[in-house]
Amino acid sequence: MDRNNTIIENIANPHVLERMFREDPKAFKKSFLHAWEQNPDSQVLAVWYERLNFKETAITEKAPLLQKGFLFMGILAILAGVCTRIIFHFIEQEAIAPINLAFGILPFIAAYLVYNRTPKKSVLYTLAALFIITGVYLNMLPLKYTDSMILAYIHLPIFLWGLVGLAFTGNEYRAGKTRLAYIKFNLDFGILYGIMAISGILLALLTLRLFSFVGLDIEEFYFSNIVLFGAAALSIVATYLVTRNLRLAKNIAPYIAKIFSPLVLITLVVYLIAVMAVGKNPFLDRNFLLAFNGVLLAVLAVTIFSITESGTDEKKTISDYINFALIVLALIIDSVALSAIVFRLSSYGITPNRLAVLGVNILIWANLIWIMFPYLRFLQNKTGPSLVQDAVTKYLPIYALWAAIVAFTFPLIFK
């Protein structure tokens, strides 16, 4: 059958045209040109013409902008690599804390995001001031590995992550939709960076092996100069690709969320059964309590990413019920952990670690409660998924605020 005639015959049947396109896009595009020449006045074919040729037009119009953005990304990638290498040199000399490596990457990611969105001057000044103040404060602290200092080192990257979020959201930092986009950006970034990092690791192993064949041991030099530089520069490249709507990560992310949610749920149920079977007690076993909190954080992360990837579709799926089950289980875990922490505080007194863990568990517990109730209403067809996503996005700054409190006050309070 002449495909050209088939397109013409089904001009009034959009379902058939769409099916023909999906079955063989290349053949459809080739046949479409002939059909378009024979029917230049058809509004339906005019829409299809724009659909089939839109990308080529968009790329042609935006080529200078893309080149400019690519050049700026390249400069930032080089700067990130160089700064990270310089910071690592001072870390080797034990002059500064290892956490300073975050300043070789995160400010440059923020710089590219700011360049990409161009926020108001007040946002720019706030970002610059907070990055500088944080860097100065960190390096004024004594280089000691006490409990309060370790807590500061752990929480500072979380606070800096919040600053990167401010750079991403720009003038729309109050908008839930933009905050939701930032969570998705993190997932897409992680997937893309992981894929490229695996390729880099394979290249590094191949390089080291090849040099070993000629009797040269370049492992230390290669790690200190090439790997560190590449790891930092790659973060800027990944940021550039994600913000340019690279389809690879965006297509993979929803599937990862859907696959991991049921796997995490099954693993968590089996884990809790095993815990009860062996008689582990988080009230008395400090290490087990820490592991319990680690499980809680992992479940919270998976749940949040699953919710953000579910979109705004009003139709419920099995993933929604799995997410709700994860939230309930996470609440049970958090309630047990909170009870154990309160018990340890009342029995053994206040320490920086116990206070920090208590604070984060209270925050997570409140966040889970806030997510659970609108999710339950959504499953009961009483509301839409937007309220669930609002419960996620509106709470994000609170985590960054708590991280700032721990990082900036604990080293001073618990000397």
TrEMBL record:
Coiled coil: none annotated. Keywords: Membrane, Transmembrane, Transmembrane helix. It comes from the Bacteria. The chain crosses the membrane at residues 70-91, 97-115, 122-138, 150-170, 191-216, 222-243, 255-278, 290-309, 321-343, 355-376, 396-414. The keyword Membrane applies. This is DUF4153 domain-containing protein. It comes from Pseudoneobacillus rhizosphaerae. The lineage of its organism: Bacteria, Bacillati, Bacillota, Bacilli, Bacillales.
